[in-house]
Design goal:
Elements lengths: L1 H5 L2 H17 L2 E2 L8 E2 L43 E2 L5 E2 L2 E5 L20 H10 L3 E6 L1 H4 L9 H4 L12 H20 L3 E6 L39 H12 L6 H16 L5 E5 L15 H12 L25 H8 L4 E4 L21 E7 L14 H21 L10 E7 L5 H13 L4 E3 L27 H4 L3 E5 L1 E8 L6 E7 L7 E4 L2 H4 L4 E6 L1 E3 L7 E6 L6 E7 L5
Parallel strand pairs: 5-6, 5-12, 6-7, 7-8, 8-9, 9-10, 10-11
Antiparallel strand pairs: 1-2, 3-4, 4-13, 13-16, 14-15, 15-20, 16-19, 17-20, 18-19
Helix pairs in contact: 2-11, 2-12, 8-10, 11-12
């Protein structure tokens, strides 16, 4: 199967190579990789390419978004690649990541502060067509504690127990601020995935995530290697900190406390209609992954997710899983489900999976699972993170997405017999529109939703300003024209093909209608980005029921149709 899929890679690579040329022809000035592409509208294109919206004061929105949302309420993942809404329509999410990695380790409405997240942010997201935000939170924010790193009362070997670092009042203040952001996004019809974010475990390693009290390095100091921040992963001290967490072999009960905090978060948000689900651990890493795709760590990761009482098996013929003896019997996913059995759980494979390496994470016989994929390339600038070789990056990302699609099918369980649903919750981290265009084209061909990294640059210690969609002055990067797509938010049937051309605005959707679904198919159309002179919608096998020019194009299936096709093109319909 992988060999067959790779026959299609050349077409996508050609797209990446030609994307810059097409953008220039459409009126863009595109700098080389590592520099900021700028918008330059000249000549005949000036009347067709409107200025990108921004966060400037003249665009300050009303406090809520009018009209009915395209999708609302709880989403489900009964099995198979798709998410579903209450009307049993297939739901495809497009969105962005919003993660603040410094104190207070969250964004919320707080004017004048660097972590401020306002109605202008949410309104601009909605105008671009984003209907989901992967919203960062950290273990340190939820349970900061008071003990220092390498505290002998926590880090000595022994039977895990209560480290006495949890403070209910601190937790309550943190999640109350988090809810303000979730509520604000909901007013603009934007879902939230709550992401327990970490990079390189803790600030001791120039990252973020775990509280200081949960850092056990056997007393080994951190060494800061020169170069890109990700080199911290390879240090001995960081390796020991991760190892003690995955083995749960110290008296501080690191995994047990982590699971307990997650249970409290799930209980707090269990009835929130705009929370789509939870991401238990961002980009899981172990030093053993230096031996790329090491099945030993993937077994530990599955033990962390399921607990010793529910452990399953690994993929690709890896040995049977043997959980460390002190790992909790009920892992983080059963703990979340016990406190919130309704929302989805976006479980990630190991960190190397984002580069297309093999991952052995296998079936987990638990409900509500979504296979949570990140896609990045390795040929990147150590300063900006931008690709140093767009062709190589495109080929690697295509390969990675193909491999993860195959993994998804092989992760079938008795609860999700067609495998879990899937979503790409991180990709991009670049100001290069050609790479973004190549990826979104491939994502459309896989019929998978996504969340771009990232919305803003919040002085990220593990990133660069080139990764953000919104620049420091509030203007959008040129990549916004690629990410703001015409796409089906909800499909009254099973989609079979989706395509969108960010240069021309041409969109095509084909699906097999489900006659048991009475709600319409809803396609988001970014009218002020791609269709300044209006758009033409044509449908076979159904009919348009929304108002002409609406940003939410609604299509009713025909009573006897067996296939529905929807096309959107720029300009008025002719003929």
């Amino acid at each position: 199967m992988r060999g067959i899929r790779r026959l299609h890679q050349s077409a996508v690579v050609l797209l990446a190579l030609s994307a810059t040329a097409t953008l220039v022809a459409a009126g863009w000035t595109v700098a080389s990789a590592g520099m900021e592409p700028a918008v330059a509208v000249t000549g005949a294109t000036a009347g067709r390419l409107p200025t990108l919206p921004s966060l400037s004061s003249r665009l300050q929105p009303a406090p809520t978004l009018g009209g009915s949302p395209a999708v609302s309420g709880r989403l489900t993942a009964p099995g198979g690649p798709f998410l579903y809404d209450a009307n049993h329509r297939v739901v495809l999410l497009h969105g962005v990541n919003v993660v603040y990695k410094h104190p207070p380790y969250e964004v919320y409405p707080d004017p004048g502060k660097p972590w401020n997240f306002s109605a202008a942010d949410a309104s601009l997201m909605a105008r671009l067509g984003f209907d989901v935000v992967r919203l960062g939170m950290t273990w340190r924010g939820l349970e900061p504690g008071t003990a220092p790193t390498n505290d002998s009362a926590i880090c000595r070997r022994g039977k895990p127990g209560d480290p006495h670092q949890f403070n209910q009042a601190v937790f309550d203040r943190y999640v109350a601020r988090l809810r303000r952001t979730v509520d604000l996004l909901g007013r603009y019809h934007i879902y939230t995935i709550l992401d327990m974010h970490q990079d390189v475990y803790n600030e001791m390693f120039d990252g973020e995530g775990a509280p200081n009290w949960a850092v056990c390095t056997n007393g080994l100091p951190s060494v800061d290697p020169p170069g890109r921040w990700s080199l911290e992963y390879g240090t001995a001290a960081a390796g020991l900190a991760y190892q003690h967490f995955w083995d749960n072999d110290v008296v501080g009960n690191l995994q047990g406390q982590y699971d307990m905090v997650w249970g409290k978060v799930a209980a707090y948000f269990r009835n929130d209609p705009w929370v789509v689900g939870y991401d238990p651990f961002n980009e899981p890493f172990s030093a053993s992954l230096v031996r790329s795709g090491d099945e030993h760590f993937d077994g530990q990761l599955e033990c962390f997710y399921t607990g010793r009482a529910h452990v399953g098996r690994l993929l690709h013929g890896a040995p049977a899983i043997a959980c460390p003896p002190d790992v909790p019997a009920e892992g983080v996913i059963p703990t979340i489900l016990a406190n919130d059995p309704r929302h989805l759980i976006f479980a990630e494979p190991d960190n190397y999976a984002s580069r297309g390496f093999p991952t052995f994470l296998g079936p987990m016989n638990l409900p509500n699972l979504v296979y949570n994929v990140h896609i990045y390339c390795g040929a990147r600038s150590p300063l900006t993170g931008n690709p140093t070789d767009v062709t190589a990056c495109t080929a690697q990302e295509v390969r990675s997405l193909d491999h993860r699609a195959e993994d998804r099918r092989e992760m079938a369980s008795s609860v999700q017999r067609a495998g879990p649903a899937w979503m790409v919750t991180e990709f991009g981290a670049t100001s290069d529109p050609s790479l973004v265009s190549a990826f979104t084209t491939q994502a459309n061909s896989h019929l998978v939703g996504w969340a771009y990294w990232s919305w803003r640059y919040y002085a990220d210690p593990t990133g660069s300003a080139a990764e953000s969609l919104v620049m420091a002055d509030g203007r959008l990067r040129s990549t916004a024209r690629v990410l703001s797509q015409t796409y089906p938010e909800a499909v009254a049937g099973r989609p079979t093909s989706i395509s969108f051309d960010p240069t021309s605005g041409a969109f095509r959707l084909r699906y097999v209608p489900d006659r048991s679904v009475s709600a319409p198919t809803v396609v988001f159309v970014p009218t002020d980005i791609h269709y300044p002179d209006g758009y033409c919608a044509r449908v076979t096998g159904g009919r348009v029921v929304s108002q002409a020019g609406s940003s939410l194009l609604e299509v009713r299936n025909g009573a006897r149709s067996t296939s529905v096709r929807v096309t959107v093109t720029a300009g008025k319909c002719r003929g």
